[in-house]
Request: fold
Amino acid sequence: MAGFHLVRAGGGATARALVAAEQRFRSHGFTDFTPFDAGPYRGFHVGYICGGPETFASFADGDFIAVAGTLVYRGRVGAEALRLLYADWRFPFDDWQNLAGQFALLVRKSGRLSLITDFFAAFQLFHDPDWRVVSTSFLATAESRPRLRWHDQGLYEFAFNVFPIGDDTVFEDVRRLGPSLQVELADPPVFRRVVKQLPGDPEPMPIEDRIVRNAERLAETIRPYAEHWGDRMQVPLSGGLDSRLALAALRAAGVKPHVYVYGDPGDIDVEIARRMGAAEGFAVEHFDKRSHATVTPDAFAGVVERNWEETDALTTDGGLFDNGGNRAARYMRQAGGQLAVSGGCGEVYRNFFYLPDRRTRLRAVALTFFARFHLPDVTERFDRRRFISAIEAKLADSLYAPIDRRLERTEVEQLYPRVRCRSFFGREISLVGRHGAYLMPFLNRRVVAEALRVPMDLKTAGRFEAMLLNRIDPALARHQSAYGHSFAEPPNLDHRLSELSTTIRPAWLRQRSYSVRRRLGPLFDDHGGILAPQYLGRVIDLHFPHMSAFFRPSNIADQGLYRRVATLELLGEKLADRLVA
Reply:
């Protein structure tokens, strides 16, 4: 991601704070440090761990521009993009037509220091309540605080829904910069609230024209990356739609990327990717993370410690308690400054929430999608009504909407990029992007805006996304998928019925779906992790002294939830000297 860390100046304490932060960034794996002194703040910028385009540029009179993440401006990448952006810079910033990518941006121009995030604030930037510390490192921000308090809402959201939504973290004393706030880092800081609009109702047009428009938006998004990196890209492939569409967009731009697939030998994703590559004449690397290395219980603590440092304590998958396979994969994808490409957020072309095509209330969305809890797993500290009400308020804030207004169905669709992608994929962007540049084309503002104009009936069972793929790359579309049909043909009956069975369920029933599934037996996920007691007991206290105030770990029969609770327990044990009730 590259990255940066700032501390508000103030005597010897500032120097000590920067030394501590630099040590933390070095433990993350950074080595390329550029210090700066920017009036009321001092700090440093770090370059990509594995190399890549320039993310820092200096100008006259101490001015500079620093990027964490990946940024494209006026179709340019690296040093030229920074030079053009600095020349055009005005605060508050509003030229989203020309600025793309996922990033945090720090600009000092004419002696004024300002800070913004990307359009959706997917790239995570942390700060303390008083804005004395601003950092791309969650741990460096948390460790700058003499006292830390658990944030109940953020903690439960992390456990139930993979990562907190909105601007929360798992600590009251560590926040994230949101999409609607831009900051001038003065003493005291000056805040500017901005409104970032997205299209409303779908635009009527012939379906062929709609496909062409969406294909053009994807091509425009890919073009700057193709011009800068050429074939030096790595892209995943699976049996689904999104990764195949990402690969198709690259091929249409003339790129021949390195293609890989994750999974166990014989997995359907692995077999489909291999067959597709063999038929179309490109190699597919198969990397099985689980067999990457055999780790003994005695060696497990050392592996987890390295993972902890590299993933900044909080990760959305099994990469904290694993055998080092996730860590190895991250280095492979961006070695030598290659561009890592993701099909994440491709569900912007589909009915992600599986809601009927009619007006609805935010509470229904909160209940149907975010109520993934089972009351026997939690203590009396969990208040389900307060939990859902807080999520409802965050959803409203993301849409600039009154909390009690009925939403048009297209407004609900905006919650996918604004909320879901920002929280879930934002963490991935911020971690994978430490090593080098990262492209998630389906989270580009112009791509999202065009996808939001697609009528809901076309989004059902991936109909429109499949037609888009077939338009861009018919050769890839014709191959079988994990859904049991190719994307050159309409979705089969099983695929349509699978979605319909969820869509027709009312909100009151869907909010109970997770709990019902739990009663039927244990739940497992694809992200794994080594959670056996003889391993996990080497890195945390299995009595869960920190998390037992919030959960009943012995009741948890959901692998993903148990792993995230264990992650929080490790965080509590690591920072125990700062935690207060």
